[in-house]
């Protein structure tokens, strides 16, 4: 995976997130409010799991 491919992936994520905020602003606001009630340790664990899964999926997709 090259740095250009990594940056392209980040750009796609930014575009998708922006579309979610544009299409469903109230849903996104409620989702963000709900996150504030989750314990920091759980957020770290979920964040790490999602990051590892995303990296694995990107590597698999790029390298086939």
From TrEMBL:
Assigned keywords, A-Z: Membrane, Transmembrane, Transmembrane helix
Pfam families reported for this sequence: DUF2065
Parts of the chain that traverse the membrane: 6-24, 45-62
InterPro entries (UniProt xref): DUF2065
Protein name: DUF2065 domain-containing protein
Native source species: Teichococcus vastitatis
